[in-house]
Design goal:
Strands 6-9-10-11-12-13 form a six-stranded mixed sheet. Strands 14-17-18-19-20-21 form a six-stranded mixed sheet. Strands 2-1-3-4-5 form a five-stranded antiparallel sheet. Strand 10 and strand 11 form a beta hairpin. It folds into three domains: 52 residues, no CATH class; 115 residues, no CATH class; 149 residues, no CATH class. It is of the alpha+beta class. It is elongated.
Length: 363
């Protein structure tokens, strides 16, 4: 349905604004064939008809494209669609912005390209590309992005055979049918994101420095307490193993060390850096005999903990700095003797069997 045409002066007109029949004195914008206006009835939709040439789809497309151009430059204001900017893993959104149109033109030259619509607005120069069939070429899109040319593409492809009222409604609600090739505020949004990220980085660095100072203070207090009392609370150590009870397989934990306090001597700080402190001491048996050497790590940051590589098969404790948690955890634990491991596994198995028998008695 052809609803746009060109009058004798070349101006784009709609079917609702011309005389009926040949008196409309209109021509097809695409093929220049004289048209007849069929707008006198009240039942059928109004439209133009060719007089000597067949109406092709290209006629409809060209007419719609031209009307959209003329309509946009004739407006006094335009509601620029919202802008969504993704940059450096963050997203910012500018809401729609109503701007005044100071002047406009169609088929404006830009370098080696022709732009469908050029608008000088209160926000600056904005170009609009009207899509009826083909999108902007990749080459043109690259040029616009690389040169930071604010350009909006409006997609009217679904309105080729729609009545004029529907087309005008789409152009008035342009956000629903458009996307920014390069937005008018893209650089500003990127700058905002970069400033926010920098502020977050500075705040995170400041928080990290404060946490490091806190950990250093806690470490100093912990070392003073250790050397004053010559005792340390060692956490329990459990080793996983698999066993069968009856015909069923179970995954259990063999406790090879209970959580309790142990005495020690020869406490010594062997490494003291801005990232961590590493100390050693000699654990004493319950009878007072010297046993295994114990390493104690005091990391001032999570990175220091992640980067620390304990000596294999050595006893290495790590001081935890989380509030409300047991103060130490094992980073490395020496392999227990086979006899001690078997005893621990047997005990875990007996506890599990007793638990199963207890619940079976109620089934």
């Amino acid at each position: 349905m052809l609803v746009f045409a060109s009058d004798a002066s070349g101006k784009v007109v709609s079917i609702n604004n011309v005389k009926n029949g040949k008196a409309c004195n209109c021509f097809c914008i695409a093929c220049n064939d004289p048209l007849i206006a069929r707008n006198g009835g009240k039942i059928k939709a109004h439209s133009f008809a060719h007089t000597s040439k067949p109406e092709k789809r290209s006629c409809l497309m060209t007419a719609l494209h031209r009307f959209a151009q003329e309509y946009l430059v004739a407006q006094e204001q335009i509601l620029l669609p919202s802008v969504k900017c993704k940059h450096m893993s963050k997203t910012k959104v500018r809401p729609p912005k109503l701007v005044k149109i100071l002047r406009g033109s169609v088929e404006s030259p830009l370098d080696r390209y022709k732009m469908d619509v050029e608008l000088e607005t209160s926000q600056g120069r904005i170009f609009i590309e009207v899509k009826v069939t083909a999108e902007c070429s990749d080459e043109k899109v690259s040029f616009l992005k690389n040169n930071k040319v604010p350009t909006l593409e409006v997609d009217l492809s679904q309105f080729i055979e729609q009545p004029i009222e529907t087309v005008i409604d789409a152009l008035r609600n342009i956000e629903l049918y458009s996307n920014w090739i390069y937005s008018w505020c893209d650089d500003a949004l990127k700058n905002e994101i970069e400033k926010e990220l920098e502020a977050e980085r500075i705040a995170a660095q400041r928080a990290l420095e404060q946490e490091v100072e806190r950990r250093k203070k806690v470490t100093k207090q912990a070392i003073n307490n250790l050397t004053r009392n010559n005792t340390i609370g060692l956490p329990a150590k459990e080793l996983p193993f698999t066993t069968f009870i009856g015909a069923r397989e179970y995954k259990l934990q063999a406790k090879v060390l209970n959580a309790e306090s142990w005495s020690f001597n020869h406490f010594n700080v062997i490494i003291d850096t801005n990232e961590y402190i590493l100390a050693t001491c000699q654990i004493l048996s319950k009878k007072g005999k010297e046993g295994n050497k114990l390493y104690i790590l005091f990391p001032f940051s999570d990175n220091a903990l992640r980067n620390f590589k304990p000596v294999p098969n050595s006893a290495v404790l790590c001081r935890l700095f989380r509030k409300g948690s047991y103060p130490y955890k094992w980073l490395s634990f020496p392999e227990p003797s086979s006899h001690k491991l078997q005893q621990a596994q047997l005990k875990a198995k007996l506890v599990k069997r007793a638990s199963l028998e207890y619940f079976e008695s109620y089934s």
